[in-house]
Design goal:
It is a single chain. The chain has 13 helices and 23 strands. By secondary structure, the protein is an alpha+beta fold. It has 2 domains: about 270 residues, no CATH class; about 120 residues, 2-Layer Sandwich (Conserved hypothetical protein from pyrococcus furiosus pfu- 392566-001, domain 2), CATH 3.30.1760. α6 packs across α9. The chain is globular and about 65 Å long. The chain starts with a strand and ends with a strand.
Length: about 425
């Protein structure tokens, strides 16, 4: 499929992905540099994690940790500090730019789960025209933050996590590359193993470019704010560049592409602070209007679509929604997160806007069911719900329909590391 497009500057031909010369830790420095994604740690957690680690990428992704504790993380000085730290790591030879443009094979191993993706420069033009498909709204404040961060660093440092319908052709090349010695092989402090291979053989680079160009689309799994910000930065740079051609580095952004048959989505659970003024028995009676309810002697981890767990007053229940209440055509309404919201959380608990209502919070499945019990048993929350993980084919169906999933619908594990590779806007 051609990715040609016509813009103000004239006709530009841009492939879906392209190779790039990555900025990476110097040999032997990856363990010192690699850090969790910027958005999974609070400022206080980042400050603790980076203590005594001068080359941790948290000094770039969360630079407020190097400023006074009362510093607003969105103040101008934070972005200036991040740029200073980024430049210092390059000046000291901690981060080096590869001489040749290429791709990078990136393998993640968490326990028994393994997934292998390709690090690429992904086309902003493809994103703007929905060939790189989205399934979430973005928040203006978070998007503005990423715009300022990218512009200040003149680089994309947080990769966007994407998926695609698996390809035997790409799998074959990945297996061939992974048979060689990796450039990086490290285990992070959370036990996740990160392995990186450089793919700079011209024939393999060309074959990978062609393989992805033949695909209809890519799907954003995680990183909607980063990709939206990349699009805005590209538009800004283009406007400032009278010689814009479409081939500049700012027309692409950093992404890691994983095949859909290797992706792992965990449950994303809910805890609610009160029962909306209902006594427990009255609340239970309302729940029975839409769900079959059975008490359980054990914590309930739903095993199929349409099944939920509920923890209330020290007791677990298994909830099953009637099949006739599950829409067959609407890709959003049939999601488990939508079924729970539409038939229980909104009509019974009175929470219509989970993005803003402070009575509801979300707990990633990586924390397990004991975390739900702890939040309720402590008295902090009144009730908890465990969900069946959103299926990847459902995410793709929503994106294909150009619709939007409810907030906190997916929790992807394992997470990509920040700092293992960055993409300069100049290359």
């Amino acid at each position: 499929m051609s990715d040609a497009y016509l813009d103000i500057a004239g006709i530009s031909n841009m492939s879906l992905i392209k190779p790039f010369a990555g900025l990476r830790p110097a040999p032997g420095k990856a363990v010192e540099v690699a850090a969790p994604p910027y958005d999974v740690l609070s400022t206080d957690e980042a400050r603790i994690r980076a203590a005594g680690k001068p080359w941790s990428f948290l000094h770039i992704s969360r630079p407020e940790i190097d400023l006074p504790e009362d510093t607003d993380p969105y103040s101008a000085q934070v972005y200036v500090k991040g740029a200073e730290n980024f430049e210092r790591m390059r000046d000291e030879g901690i981060l080096l730019t590869d001489e040749a443009a290429g791709y990078y094979l990136y393998r993640l191993v968490m326990g028994k789960h393994t997934q292998t993706g390709l690090v690429v420069a992904a086309s902003v033009g493809a994103y703007d025209r929905n060939r790189i498909r989205k399934h979430e709204y973005t928040r203006p404040d978070k998007e503005d933050d990423r715009v300022r961060q990218i512009d200040a660093l003149n680089a994309h440092t947080g990769p966007v996590f994407m998926t695609y319908r698996h390809s035997d052709r790409v799998d074959r090349i990945a297996a061939e590359v992974a048979a060689a010695r990796p450039a990086v092989d490290m285990t992070a402090d959370d036990g996740v193993r990160h392995t990186l291979w450089v793919v700079d053989e011209p024939a393999l680079v060309d074959e990978l470019t062609a393989a992805f160009e033949a695909m209809e689309c890519l799907y954003i799994a995680d990183g909607h704010h980063r990709s939206a910000a990349a699009s805005r930065v590209a538009a800004m740079r283009k406007q400032r560049n009278p010689a814009h051609t479409g081939d500049e580095g700012y027309n692409y952004f950093l992404a890691v592409l994983f095949p859909d048959d290797q992706m792992q989505i965990l449950d994303y659970n809910r805890v609610v602070r009160d029962l909306n003024g209902l006594p427990p028995q009255a609340f239970m009676q309302r729940v029975r209007e839409c769900f079959e309810l059975q008490s359980s002697a054990n914590p309930v981890k739903p095993g199929r679509h349409g099944e939920f767990g509920m923890y209330l007053n020290g007791q677990w229940y298994r909830l099953t929604i009637a099949s006739e209440r599950i829409p067959t055509q609407d890709p959003v309404a049939r999601l488990d997160v939508s079924l729970l919201a539409d038939h229980l959380i909104e009509p019974i608990l009175g929470i219509g806007d989970p993005r803003r209502d402070r009575r509801i919070e979300f707990v990633g499945g990586i924390r397990g069911l004991p975390e739900l019990e702890r939040r309720v048993d402590s008295g902090e929350m009144a009730v908890a719900f465990s969900l069946f993980p959103t299926r990847l084919q459902d995410l793709m169906a929503v994106a294909d329909a150009e619709q939007v999933m409810p907030p906190k619908s997916t929790w992807f594990e394992p997470k990509l590391a920040d700092g293992l590779i960055s993409h300069s806007l100049d290359r």
